[in-house]
Design a protein that fits this description.
By secondary structure, the protein is of the alpha/beta class. The protein is built from 11 helices and 8 strands.
Length: 268
């Protein structure tokens, strides 16, 4: 299991500084949202400059985010979202990254329509030689648990569409170590991780904590992932204004230290 720093953990830190910090503090890779590209292009003036920065950073790119909402989108909005999807797939491929990610839609719709939509983006991912990791979120109306997302993936049955687990949404949605043990080999393509506070507010998701500060048994969870044979990235995604207020280099260094301490000894 390889360790990546999710750019959102450093929030408004400029991309060049985030890359320098990630490399200096020992992370192997960076994960980037669609917004991270947009912000960096605005700051640096061109997508070419951003891509050159990433390629010369000395870090791998673990995962590239797309813009979500495409599952049930129609008409011109769907065309726009699929264009963004294809653009992000192309950027991922150019950066040597094999995984793109998207949260599932927040609203509701017909499951058959969602499966057809997933197959369509799976074909786009396949054209670019990447795999889509799709994520459920606890604030969504329909795809808000592991079981519901697995049902969608099974119905779509596309080889380029696999499961992404964000431990924050996973545990708030009733997940457990046992659920990891029940996954099929190869079903899981990417992990984003942060801890869940002991007391949570409905609808609030920017209260994430470093591992060990909340309720998730991370040592058991990481061991279960290792036993499952998961060999992808663990991406440190701690979205929290209280964290963002701290020194970004300290955030990155402490995050890596606590992660290594919780990994199975042979994987640390």
């Amino acid at each position: 299991m390889r360790l990546a720093l999710h750019k959102w953990t450093l929030n408004e830190t400029p991309l060049a500084d985030a890359l320098r910090i990630a490399r200096k503090t020992g992370w192997e890779a960076i994960e980037l949202r669609r917004d991270d590209f947009t912000q960096a292009i605005s700051l640096m003036g061109s997508v070419e400059a951003v891509m050159a920065l990433l390629k010369g950073s000395g870090l791998a790119v673990a995962c590239v985010g797309v813009e979500f909402g495409w599952i049930y989108a129609e008409g011109e909005e769907r065309k726009r979202l699929l264009s963004v999807f294809a653009e992000q797939c192309a950027r991922a491929r150019a950066l040597g990254c094999s995984t793109v990610m998207s949260p599932a839609d927040r609203g509701r719709g017909e499951l058959k329509q969602a499966a057809a939509s997933l197959r369509e983006v799976g074909d786009i991912a396949a054209e670019h030689g990447v795999t889509l990791g799709i994520e459920f979120m606890i604030q969504a109306e329909q795809f808000n648990s592991l079981d519901r997302l697995r049902e969608l993936l099974a119905l779509a049955d596309h080889p380029r569409c696999r499961l992404l687990i964000d431990t924050y949404h996973f545990y708030r949605g009733g997940g457990s170590v046992r659920a990891i043990e029940d996954l099929k080999p190869g079903e899981l393509v990417h992990i984003q991780y942060s801890d869940v506070p002991k007391s949570v507010e409905p609808g609030k998701v920017q209260d994430r904590l470093p591992p060990g500060e909340g309720v998730i048994p991370f040592a058991e969870l990481f061991a279960a992932l290792a036993d499952h044979g998961y060999a992808g990235y663990l991406s440190y995604e701690v979205a929290n204004p209280a964290v963002w207020a701290r020194d970004p280099e300290t955030i990155a260094r402490e995050g890596l230290e606590v992660t290594r301490a919780l990994l199975p000894r042979s994987r640390a």
